[in-house]
Amino acid sequence: MHAFENLDVFGGVVSLDFANTVDGRATEQPVEYLHTYADLAAWSAYMGMIDDATAERLGRLDGGASLDQALSLREAIFQVFRAIGRGEPAPVAELDEVRLRYAEAVAAARLSPGDDGTFGWRFEGDDPDRAWWPIAVDAVRLLTGGPLDRIKVCAAPAGCVGLFLDTSKNRSRRWCTMDGCGVDAKVKRQATRRRTAR
Q1: Where do the Zinc finger CGNR domain residues begin and end (predicted)?
Q2: Spatial contact of 59 and 38, defined as CB atoms under 8 Å apart
Q3: How far apart (Å, rounded) are the C-alpha atoms in residues 98 and 78?
Q4: Residues contacting residue 173 through CB under 8 Å, at least 6 positions apart
Q5: Are 63 and 34 in contact (CB under 8 A)?
Q6: For residue 100, what are the contacts with CB-CB under 8 A and spacing of at least 6?
Q7: What CATH class has 14-197?
Q8: Distance, CA of 117 to CA of 111 (rounded, Å)
Q9: CB-based contact 66:128 (threshold 8 Å)
Q10: Which of 11, 21, 23, 65 could form a disulfide with 16 if both were Cys (CB 3.0 to 4.6 A apart)?
Q11: Sign of the C-alpha dihedral, residues 33, 37, 39, 41?
Q12: What pLDDT is recorded for position 3?
């Protein structure tokens, strides 16, 4: 079984999925999925940002400092997009953190054409930071190109606080996943109705 087999991937873009690698942030027992640098490299491969062979090579490196930078980026992404999802101003210090990591990433990248003919940032080599560089690029792409009005925070009262891009036609999605927080919310509503009816 893959290490991330039980991790729900529901963000819609890599940067939001990265923010969601802490599950149940507002609960008494949040779940952390990235304990080591090898976890980060494996997650990057799981999300298709690097291939498995690169992840294996990177996972053998001493990437402690890179993991620290990645987790700092993750928390900045979470704070920025949670604010946006709630219609609040994005926090300045966290925006600066995202900008800093983006600048580091593109400084190490090269522009090259993709299969669709457009150009994009490509990363090569075995620098430990390669595991998070594409995340920083994705976060800035979302910030500068949107759609920011479709970013939402899971409405589950249990403390999920998951971030996602609402791609529903009528923008009615409220929960990170219907079979997770959506079901929990419905069960709680039914229990409340039953208590009220009594």
Answers
A1: 150-194
A2: yes
A3: 10
A4: 152, 164, 166, 167
A5: no
A6: none
A7: mainly alpha
A8: 12
A9: yes
A10: 11
A11: positive
A12: 67
